[in-house]
Each structure stands twice: as structure tokens, then as C-alpha cells.
Design brief:
The structure is a single chain. By secondary structure, this protein is α+β, with helices and mostly antiparallel strands. Among the domains are: 28-107, no CATH class; 212-441, no CATH class. The protein is 51% helix and 11% strand. The chain is built from 18 helices and 14 strands. It has helices at 37-45, 91-96, 103-107, 128-136, 167-179, 186-199, 205-220, 226-229, 235-252, 257-269, 278-299, 302-315, 334-362, 368-383, 386-396, 407-415, 418-423, 429-441; strands at residues 6-10, 34-35, 50-51, 54-55, 60-62, 73-75, 85-86, 89-90, 110-115, 118-123, 143-146, 158-161, 320-322, 327-330.
Length: 443
């Protein structure tokens, strides 16, 4: 049992209940399902047992790329579906009970991380019911802390991060305050994070706290840099970037049908065809943003904020770096912080861009249910795919992959540097990078 003194979680966490066969996008399909070593050995030691008409021991196989006891084996999927799924529910759990399902299946969509002496619990939004809980309630991501004598969890499903003085929590609390600072548009809040995260490189989280406090005070006093206040989003760059990244992801692996439907709505809404010019798409995109997306977001400001807060809390943004056996480290290297910010901004930008296209289709009928469907299906299709994260970093930092910048990035480089244009001085790599992100996330 892990030695924890408290539990920290969003308000919505305790309200989650799996809805089983009623779920519109089961977690038993659409991705690989890992089996921990202890559960695998249970299966092998059982007398011959039929599960969903098959021998239980034959449903799993060794995972050649395993890195720890947690991903020791995998289920043999049948057309991207777990072979134990029967009439919408897990036949293993129905037949043998919860102790016989893998750690992953027992925990999901819950995410469990011990940071210092605190167990942090959150929800993955790739689950439809979790996404509804987080996105429907404006107060769902209010963090609560309490003492529990023996928090219930499987030890193999808990990630570990050393944080003896609670500095990581204080850093994230300030980052979340930046995201919640509604005196600025959400895109500007994200861009401001890019600049302040760059200042945290190479210093301990405890020393990062006053830097973030100062940054938040500057924002609240209206001292946002004039250069960034003058920045505007670039519709063509947003569309080109998102389409390039999305099409590469969709073409590389199985894509859940629920996201494919959202992607189709996005394309249909913008009246995209092979003959459509980027100028025409950008004009329709800007029109949809002004007429439907922005008014909707103003009525439901919490939607995208809650998505971002959940991401920041769950991923220990901006520091988390993966180690073996469910352990993580606080990584304050400049490259790690840069990559964390790029991933946060790009995931947000992709959701936002798809939603603007969907808004063009649904117009005044655009609803919170559409937002839930998009965020959930996007999360399932993109947030659990490590190869996609690698592609994003290589796209925005092409020199890291030893390749030339893609066309959209080359064009962005011409428009993203207001400082250098006015002063004639070369912008720093951090300013250049964040300026490009500004083109991607701002209205």
C-alpha cells in the first residue's frame, strides 16, 4: 500500500459511474488493451475457462515491446475490438469478477498519480461519460482535497512523481489560474503560458512559483505584451496545420468511427472538396468562427477551459517526464518544457479548429453535446497515441527530426514575428516558436 496523506481530485471525480452497454463509444474497442503481468499469470493458472466462447488463456499474447510489468501482454483484438467484449460488457468481469480484469481496465477512465504524499485522481476525457461530467458542469474541475484513510486503488495502476515540498502542485495551481483569467481571450492566455514556461527552464519548481505569481499579476493588471496583443490567428495556417496533422494520424492507424464522424462534419461544414482553394476555406472558417463558434463559446466559457484544466492537472504540466514502471520525474529541461507547451497548445488548437468547422454545419443548433462528442472522440483518437505526440514535436521543431519545415510552418514563419519586423532584430527561438503558436490558437 502506498503511503499517502491526502487525496486531491476535481469535483466531478466521485460522480463517475461506468454506464456499460449503454456507452456510445466503448473503451473495449479502438485501441490496444495491455495486460499487466499479475493478471496475465492469473489467466495462465486458471483451469480451462471459456470466455465469450473462447479459452481465456488464448485471448492474450505476450507484448514484444513491453517495457515493464504493467504492459506485459495484450489482448488479441478482433477487428479492433477486445475479444472478451460480449453484448456491450466485459465477459471476464461478468464471469470471474473484477479482480480478473487487467489493472488498465479496472482503473480507466480514472487516472491515478501519487505526487509527493498526495494521491491525485482525475478522468480521461476519451470516455464519453467522463467527458460529459467534465464539460457539462462549469464547476466540474474545481479541485478538492481531503484525507482518506485507505484510498482504494490497485498499486499497479498508480503513477509516481516525487514532490517533497508540494511545489509541483503550486506550479500547476498557478498555471490553472492563468487558464481561468477571463480578462483575456483564451488564446492569449495560452500564448502567455508559452512565454512564462520558457522562463522556467533549468530551475526547480519551488523557484518557478514566484515567476508564475508575477506573470499572473501582470495579466490581471492588463500588462500583457503589446506585441502579443497585436497578434491575430491565421485561419489558413490553422486549417493547413490541423489538416496536415489530422490526415497523417488518420492514415497511420485505426481511427475510432465517432471521431471520423466529427471530422466529416468539419469538412462538410466548410464545404471542403478537392477543388476548394485555401482562400475559400479560410473565408468560410472565419465566417463560422464569428457567426457561430465565438458566440457559443461566450455562452459556455467553461467548456474549453475545463478541457485544458483537466489536461494540465492529469499530465502534471509542464514537467512530467516518463520513466519505467509507472514512475515519472519532474523534468525542467528547456526541451521538455517546450514540448509540453507545444502539445498542450496543439491539442487545444485542433479541438478548436474542428469545432469551428462543425459549427459551420450545425450553425444555431450547435450544442454542448456536439462539444462533448468532439472532445471525447478527439481524446480517444489523439491523446493516447504516443506516435502522434512525436509527430507534433517534429512538425513544430523540424530541426529535431533533421527535416525541412513543412509548407504551413514556412508560411507561418513569415507572419509570426512582429518584434523582429518592427525592430529589425532577430527574434529569439522562444519568441518565434510562441508567435507561431499564437497564429494557431488565437481568434
Amino acid at each position: 500500500m502506498l503511503n499517502v496523506q491526502s487525496v486531491r481530485q476535481p469535483k466531478c471525480f466521485d460522480h463517475f459511474r461506468c454506464i456499460g452497454a449503454a456507452c456510445e463509444d466503448t473503451c473495449c474497442a479502438g485501441w490496444g488493451i495491455v495486460v499487466d503481468q499479475q493478471t496475465y499469470e492469473k489467466y495462465q493458472s486458471l483451469p480451462a475457462r471459456q470466455i465469450a466462447g473462447k479459452d481465456l488463456s488464448a485471448l492474450v499474447e505476450f507484448y514484444d515491446a513491453r517495457s515493464s510489468s504493467r504492459d506485459y501482454a495484450r489482448f488479441r483484438l478482433e477487428e479492433a475490438v477486445c475479444p472478451a467484449l460480449e453484448q456491450g460488457v466485459c465477459a471476464i468481469q461478468q464471469t470471474l469478477g473484477e479482480p480478473y480484469i487487467p489493472d488498465l481496465c479496472s482503473t480507466y477512465p480514472r487516472s491515478l498519480t501519487v505526487i509527493g504524499r498526495t494521491l491525485e485522481r482525475s478522468l480521461h476525457l476519451s470516455c464519453p461519460e467522463a467527458a460529459r461530467l467534465v464539460l457539462n458542469d462549469p464547476d466540474s474541475m474545481v479541485l478538492q482535497e481531503r484525507v482518506e484513510e485507505e484510498p482504494l486503488h490497485r498499486s499497479g495502476s498508480v503513477a509516481l512523481i516525487a514532490d517533497p515540498d508540494d511545489s509541483l502542485h503550486r506550479v500547476r495551481a498557478l498555471v490553472i489560474d492563468v487558464i481561468g483569467e477571463r480578462s483575456l481571450p483564451l488564446g492569449q492566455r495560452i500564448v502567455s503560458l508559452g512565454f512564462v514556461v520558457d522562463k522556467l527552464a533549468g530551475i526547480d519548481p519551488a523557484d518557478a512559483v514566484p515567476i508564475l505569481e508575477d506573470h499572473l499579476n501582470y495579466l490581471r493588471q492588463g500588462l500583457f505584451p503589446d506585441d502579443l496583443m497585436a497578434q491575430r490567428g491565421d485561419a489558413a495556417f490553422q486549417l493547413e496545420t490541423v489538416l496536415e496533422l489530422a490526415i497523417a494520424r488518420i492514415g497511420s492507424d485505426y481511427t475510432p468511427p465517432r471521431f471520423v464522424k466529427c471530422f466529416s462534419d468539419f469538412l462538410v461544414g466548410l464545404e471542403w472538396t478537392a477543388d476548394t482553394s485555401m482562400e475559400e476555406l479560410a473565408a468560410r472558417y472565419d465566417s463560422s468562427s464569428e457567426r457561430y463558434f465565438l458566440p457559443f463559446v461566450r455562452r459556455h466559457e467553461h467548456l474549453l477551459e475545463n478541457y485544458l484544466i483537466g489536461y494540465i492537472f492529469r499530465t502534471a504540466f509542464p514537467y512530467r517526464s516518463k520513466l519505467p514502471d509507472r514512475k515519472f520525474s519532474i523534468d525542467s529541461r528547456a526541451e521538455s518544457l517546450r514540448n509540453s507547451f507545444i502539445l498542450l497548445a496543439v491539442h487545444y488548437a485542433m479541438i478548436r479548429t474542428f469545432f469551428i468547422g462543425m459549427a459551420a454545419m450545425y450553425k444555431d443548433n450547435l450544442s454542448v453535446d456536439h462539444a462533448v462528442k468532439l472532445v471525447q472522440s478527439y481524446s480517444k483518437a489523439f491523446l493516447h497515441i504516443s506516435s502522434f505526440e512525436k509527430s507534433v514535436i517534429e512538425y513544430f521543431v523540424p530541426e529535431r527530426a533533421g527535416q525541412a519545415a513543412l509548407p504551413a510552418m514556412e508560411r507561418a514563419g513569415q507572419a509570426a514575428l512582429p518584434v523582429s519586423e518592427r525592430t529589425g532584430q532577430a527574434a529569439s527561438p522562444a519568441i518565434e516558436r510562441v508567435s507561431k503558436i499564437a497564429l494557431l490558437v488565437m481568434d
